[in-house]
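Researcher: Sequence recovery benchmark, item below. Answer with residues only.
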């Protein structure tokens, strides 16, 4: 095979890789933008606010260190959702029924259908654990969006490096003799 043909094939392959990386980066950036805006918009509609700075709830050592950075703010991001779910809702849910879960309290309520306190605890735990799960799902999607962003940046960076290599390949291709063999 002639050297010039081989170099032309490699350079064309590099050019195609640049296009693929640019398309992948664009799609990843679109995914990041879609996830970030959707999570933000959905969380904003819930109108959840963190306890105000100086509130008694933020003095709790299980809550305060995690929620103080967001004191008084509206919950609109994935990290905020994770903090609120794991360090506010979860702490309050532990206070209900001595740390038992909804499944445990619900089973007890079914065994004792006349116990209004168990039914109320089961309802509260169900609602709290559901909200907590939804917030953690928003956090999970937020994290996927962040991963897509970093993957897009990496894809664009690799495309830039490949573009430089393709340009150098074409410049080299002009200097190779048509008769030169591998």
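Model:
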């Amino acid at each position: 095979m002639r050297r010039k043909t081989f170099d032309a094939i490699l350079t064309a392959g590099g050019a195609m890789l640049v296009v693929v990386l640019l398309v992948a980066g664009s799609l990843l950036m679109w995914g990041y933008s879609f996830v970030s805006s959707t999570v933000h918009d959905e969380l904003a509609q819930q109108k959840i606010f963190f306890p105000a700075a100086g509130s008694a709830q933020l003095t709790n050592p299980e809550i305060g260190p995690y929620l103080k950075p967001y004191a008084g703010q509206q919950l609109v991001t994935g990290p905020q959702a994770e903090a609120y779910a794991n360090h506010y809702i979860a702490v309050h849910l532990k206070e209900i029924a001595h740390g038992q879960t909804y499944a445990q309290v619900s089973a007890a309520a079914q065994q004792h259908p006349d116990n209004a306190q168990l039914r109320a605890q089961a309802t509260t735990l169900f609602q709290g654990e559901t909200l907590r799960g939804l917030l953690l799902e928003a956090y999970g999607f937020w994290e996927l969006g962040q991963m897509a962003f970093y993957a897009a940046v990496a894809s664009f960076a690799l495309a830039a490096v490949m573009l430089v290599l393709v340009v150098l390949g074409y410049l080299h291709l002009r200097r190779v003799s048509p008769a030169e063999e591998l």
